[in-house]
Amino acid sequence: MAYFDNISKIKFDGAKSKDPLAFKFYNPEEKINGKTMEETLKFGVAYWHTFMEDLSDPFGVGTAQRPWDKFSDPMDKAKARVDASFEFFDKLGIPYFCFHDFDIAPEGSNLKETLANQDVIVDMMEDYLKDSKVKLLWNTVNNFTNPMFVHGASTSNNADVFAYAAAKVKKGLEVGKRLGSESYVFWGGREGYESLLNTNMGLELDNLARFFHMANDYAKEIGFDAQFLIEPKPKEPTTHQYDFDVAHGFAFLQKYNLQDVFKFNIEANHATLAGHSFEHELHYARINGMLGSVDANQGHPQLGWDTDEFPSDLYATTLAMYEILKNGGLEKGGLNFDAKVRRTSFKPEDLFKAHIVGMDSFALGAKVAQRMIDDKALDSLVEKRYSSFSEGIGKDIVDGNTDFKKLQDYALTLDKVENESGNVEVIKSILNQYLVTTIADA
Ligand code: XLS
Ligand code: NI
Ligand code: NI
After folding, report:
1. Which of 238, 295, 357, 431 gives a 20 to 30 Å CA spacing to 317?
2. How far is CA 183 from CA 62, 160, 229, 284, 425, in A?
3. Whose CA is nearest to atom 3 of ligand 1?
4. Span from the CA of 108 to the centroid of ligand 3 (angstroms)
């Protein structure tokens, strides 16, 4: 059964193409720094947004036209979604996808039934994966939608809920292993609090760490060698979430000796919700060896929530790719479009068009970023700015060859202290030049 009959395989058509169903900048075979775009960018489809989302909002019902949703039996619907998704991956030519347990199979009336439903769909996916180029980038479990998780999952005050959440993650790890997932994600949507007045934060954080250690032990036991990823988000749905941002998450991981088990899955819109730029979060993770994967989307500048738009902002994609390329790529991670089409883009082909815009935006960003890296366009300026630390007193500080007494003696010899301009405006204009010339050459 075909769901996208009117769509043929999406092709690269070049920067001047006027075809919304063609790539303008993403040319899978084109090389950037010796690796193909396909290998470097590792794009993925988010199953939930693309095959589950009905595009409803708090003021209106869903608008999405999704031919695979015509079945009324939940398992028939789930199977149709698998058919539709593999047709979509193939026609788009996207190498990866990601899902939650409840995206692929409906909940049953009890846990046993729920797990059995998953087995049916996982069997089906396993078959598809055998003949398909597409691979599973990461899977995860949804421990936030069911009312059971009202007080949290692994940070719930209710130990039964902790056990239930563990049972689901145990299954998630088994599913990930069966389908050869490269990574495994933990997003703590309900792992936080509403009010400190009724919260034992110390116990909740200890329990969260206990949960992660048990997950790691079980993954090792079954030989599932996926990269574990924490996905920070400061708020929404919870008022305060424990994995607020990369810095919070990193402190937590180090306190509980989990820093070698996890890396971060950084989502652009979550970064901005935390009051950071996307590149800040990527940079913080990278310099600490913790950059694992990316949820590629963007927020809306006028809206203060997780709008999960498809990425189109070239400054953001360029600066993100700058961090990713400097990181030497993402190893077991990739660029997962945790993004949904707008409520007004309700047609099935809008799903293709939106992914194309996202893929093109990151492909172009990667080209610009690689040029800046090759030319040391930013590096040379940054190096110069910190040159006081490569000689004299600065070198002594960096090498650990000084102390407060020597520093005071030195400071007393200074007649005056002079600073140089930071050249921020100039650097921004250099970035503009790289963007414009790369587009012109494309
Ligand atoms: C929600 C999160 C979620 C995770 C996976 O804001 O981004 O979709 O990526 O649970
Ligand atoms: Ni996400
Ligand atoms: Ni999100």
Report:
1. 238
2. 32, 27, 7, 20, 39
3. 187
4. 26
